[in-house]
Amino acid sequence: MMERNGAAPASVIGRFAPSPTGPLHIGSLVAAVGSWLMAKCAGGQWLLRIDDLDRPRCRQEFEDDILRTLERFGLCWDGPITRQSDNSAAYAAAFERLQELGAVYPCSCSRAEIARSASAPHPGEEIPYPGSCRNGLAVGREPRAWRLRTENVQIVFDDLRHGRIVTALDRSGDFVVKRAEGFFAYQLAVVVDDHLTGVNQVVRGDDLLDSTPRQVWLHQLLGWPLPAYCHLPLVIGPDGAKLSKRDNTVSLADGSVAGKESELLVWAFCYLGLAVPMELIGTDCHELLAWAASAFRPDQIPQIPASSLSASVYSSKLMVPSGSHFLTR
Ligand SMILES: [Zn+2]
């Protein structure tokens, strides 16, 4: 484990943390390239963690495919690969600390009960937990999950692209840190993982921005320093929705973009505000990455909303949105 000491300025330790529930797609490529650039432009390290907490959905073949894809793109990680499935003891220790702090409580509610008791949010929004078990379980009820208290918690953090974010945590309600099946929840796991590996820079897609206030609260409760955050614009599919691992048109699985890696890398740089000079077009991934690590400037990541950016990417005919995943340039 890397020790942190507050005195010396910490060198940047970033990470990429894919889940082996499917092959990488061009959206995950942007997250991988973005986190790599952010770490490498500062002379830092880029760690690779396999987020395999959701065991039933994870498959070894997907993990193998993800590693091969990163290698084909020349995205080399520093140090050993870590896996959430190896970290249960650390999650348990953090959970015990939260119990000692009185920050968590057992909850007996089923999903259906929460849905019935909560006011209906906007479509697609998470149903906020109404706090039914916050003051103790009702007589005769058995504990299922453990939830973290969020009453009156105000969270403030800075994101490189979004600026200062101030939010009341109880909007989403007390959230689960240990699930009914006995597994620790994603929010707790990533905070423990990042802390244990010394990660001090979290760069990932905008789809995780909603999770960040909860993770900030966990860092604060556990007394751990906050990483720097940067949430990248999401790549939106031709239908206007977030890309899915089930969507084969954007998959980077073995063979699906063979020979197109450097072109896709140029596209990902462009997406992150980095225009590749003409003389570098056609060079290999390693050469492109070496150039990009020195040329990339985090403040040039586009601020414009992901939807309009994606629309312009798709309409520029860089990419055929359906039928083929090959670049047309
Ligand atoms: Zn409950």
Would you spell out the secondary-structure blueprint of this structure?
Elements: E1 13-16, H1 26-40, E2 45-50, H2 60-72, E3 82-83, H3 88-100, E4 104-107, H4 111-117, E5 145-148, E6 154-159, E7 163-168, E8 175-178, H5 186-196, E9 201-205, H6 212-221, E10 228-232, H7 261-271, H8 285-295, H9 306-315
Parallel strand pairs: 1-2, 2-3, 9-10
Antiparallel strand pairs: 4-5, 5-8, 6-7
Helix pairs in contact: 1-7, 1-8, 3-5, 5-6, 7-8
The structure holds zinc ion.
Question: How would you characterize this protein structure?
Answer:
- With 329 residues, the protein is α/β, with parallel strands linked by helices.
- Helices cover 31% and strands 14% of the residues.
- The strands form four sheets. It has a three-stranded parallel sheet with strand order 1-2-3, covered by helices on one side. The chain has a three-stranded antiparallel sheet with strand order 4-5-8. The protein has a two-stranded antiparallel sheet with strand order 6-7.
- Helix 1 links the parallel strand 1 (13-16) and strand 2.
- The N and C termini lie far apart (46 Å).
- Mean pLDDT is 85; it is low at 1-6 and 305-329.
- It binds zinc ion.
- Residues 107-109, 132-133 line the site of zinc ion.
Determine the structural class based on helices, strands and strand pairing.
alpha/beta
Bound molecules: zinc ion
List the helices and strands in order. Answer: EHEHEHEHEEEEHEHEHHH
Average pLDDT over all residues: 85
Percent range for helical residues? 25-40%
**Assembly status:** single chain
Distance between the termini: 46 Å
Number of helices: 9
Overall 3D geometry?
A: elongated
Low-pLDDT ranges: 1-6, 305-329
Rg calculated over all Cα atoms: 21 Å
The strand line-up of the biggest sheet is 1-2-3
What does the largest sheet look like? Answer: 3 strands, parallel
